[in-house]
Amino acid sequence: VTNVAHTVHPSKGYRLVARAAVEIEEGAMLCTTYTHLLAGTRTRQAELQRTKYFTCQCKRCLDPTELGTHFSSMKCQKCDNGLVESTKPTDEKAEWKCTLCEHKLKGALIAKAIQVMQAEIDELAYMEYGPERLESFERVFKKYRSVLHPLHFINTSIRHSLIELYGRIPGYMMPELPDILLERKIELCKDILRVIDVFEPGKSRSRAMLLYELHAPIVVLAQSEYAHGSLDGEPLKKRLQEAIALLEESSEILKWEDPTTPEGILANVAKQSMVQLRQSMEIANLGN
Predict the structure, then answer these.
(1) 13 part of a folded domain
(2) What is the rounded distance in angstroms from the CA atom of residue 158 to the CA atom of residue 134?
(3) What is the pLDDT of residue 4?
(4) Domain count, the chain
(5) What residues of the chain score a pLDDT lower than 50?
(6) How far is residue 269's CA from residue 266's CA, in Å, rounded to a whole number?
(7) Which InterPro entries has this protein been placed in (predicted)?
(8) Is residue 190 part of a domain?
(9) 83, 198, 228, 265: which has the fewest Cβ within 10 Å?
(10) Residue 113: CB atoms within 10 Å
């Protein structure tokens, strides 16, 4: 089968099963993507032209707002609340214009600015996996807050890096995180889910992984608030049930994955975490 990832370990009977992430109406067109969904339009178009020799004309690529996410939009520096967007996203030379005022910028200038920002982020990826790396990503995130739309692909990329770091490095392990940083990780996960829900709706691996990441700070924050006497009873029960629902959805999405892959392993871990959380609720008399 062309354009489908394959394995050296053939399935039983050499059968291939394709599962849709969303409901498909009878007669509807089946679509796939050749590019990374969490890349901006200009990056995706350049990749398609370089490797596939065509310009994509899909709804997202033709929309300057990228389906309302403003994934490539920049904040206007000449007015309040204006966003600078491409006048023709499929043309790298097209002019960029503010949505509120008359401020205009050349496409080449936008491309250069993005190149500089991306280079700074790429440099951070070579840093040692430790506290300094996390703190550097947070500094860069704040640095470009006044320049980029909150859901811009560069911000989204930084969020991914921060989600991987919070809870996994010395000084920032999950039990060590103060409430404000637990809330920070929750916010990071939810912000990326807002984008995923638009670009990759339904039962996607990306969604499953993020749901798993989201459940942990919710549980630890609930435990912290319970320990400080600010959360108990029904509110505590609802918070833990929220975490269980996230684990349930995550494991449901990943249950079809090969158990030897990272996704398959995570599906099993999510199930175990769900059982442990339910047992903890029973012990605390918070069961159904």
Answers:
(1) no
(2) 10
(3) 57
(4) 1
(5) 1
(6) 5
(7) SET_SmydA-8, TPR-like_helical_dom_sf
(8) yes
(9) 228
(10) 15
